[in-house]
Amino acid sequence: MKVVWSKSNEMWTGQIVLCRNGKYVVRYEGVATCPPWDRAGIDGPYWRVVATCDTIEEAKKVAAERGWMTEN
């Protein structure tokens, strides 16, 4: 997998990754995805997949709908 876009802050990281099969995966990880026994993320990261898309444009649209494409 290759990360083609990423945005993060102290609470979470959102990414679009290109998989070997040519699909784009929109995923995130952060404090809400870590199990209670691993709040430090030592055994993580714990990625949650939001969508699997055929094109980068579709993936960016999903990220924008989640509010990740803003400048803040």
Key structural traits:
72 residues; mainly beta; four-stranded antiparallel β-sheet; 4 strands
Question: Poorly predicted ranges (pLDDT <50, ≥5 residues)?
Answer: none
Q: Please, how many domains?
A: 1
Distance between the termini: 27 Å
Nearest-angstrom radius of gyration? 13 Å
In N-to-C order, the SSE pattern is: EEEEH
Describe this structure in words.
The protein has 72 residues and is mainly beta. The protein has one domain (2-65). Helix content is 14%, strand content 38%. The protein is built from one helix and four strands, in the order E-E-E-E-H. Strands 1-2-3-4 form a four-stranded antiparallel sheet, covered by helices on one side. A hairpin with a 3-residue loop joins strand 1 and strand 2 (12-18). The protein is globular. The protein starts with a strand and ends in a 7-residue tail after the last helix. 12% of the residues are buried.
